[in-house]
Write a structure and sequence with these properties.
mainly alpha, Arc Repressor Mutant, subunit A, two-stranded antiparallel sheet, 6% strand, 2 strands
Length: 163
């Protein structure tokens, strides 16, 4: 079973997207209901995979892209090690017809479930989740964070044009 890192990371990203920047790990930890050190470890992974901008002793400065461009599979891969949702048990009896074939029967089923989960995560963006917050919650990125998107987009466009 996977841990709660994905849920906590999505929570962190929602706080960063909805709260005025910068947002401290202490503020986020209060919302998540965990220790600020846990939040900082997850934020470090989110920063390493270019999902958020942070600055030491300041906190999260914003998302690196608009929420519409961040899907849940990216977040999942940022914070969880690559593993199968279900493991097959090993050491079954080769002399038993069930033991000799159970892995062959379950493997395609488990692979299909894994693929469906990943497809669903990829099809769901952070913006899809932000739109589900109750009325009165801000569903747009705070103005002071929007400048980070435009700077990143300009750099990306210059790189594309150069290639």
């Amino acid at each position: 079973m996977y841990s709660s890192k994905l849920s906590m990371s999505i929570h962190i990203l929602c706080v960063i997207a909805l709260e005025p920047c910068p947002v401290t790990s202490e503020h986020i930890a209060n919302s998540v209901g965990t220790n600020p050190a846990v939040v900082r470890r997850l934020m470090s992974k989110l920063k390493r995979t270019h999902l958020i901008l942070t600055h030491t002793k300041v906190g999260a400065l914003g998302l690196t892209r608009p929420p519409e461009e961040i899907n849940l599979l990216e977040i999942f891969h940022a914070v969880e090690p690559k593993q199968q949702l279900f493991d097959l048990h090993t050491g079954t009896s080769d002399t038993c017809p069930i033991g000799a074939n159970i892995c062959l029967i379950l493997s395609p089923l488990y692979d299909g479930i894994q693929q469906e989960m990943e497809n669903k995560l990829q099809a769901t963006t952070l913006a899809d989740l932000l739109r589900q917050f109750p009325p009165g919650s801000s569903t747009s990125t705070p103005p002071q964070c929007k400048k980070h998107f435009s700077v990143k987009s300009e750099k990306r466009n210059r790189m594309k044009n150069h290639l």
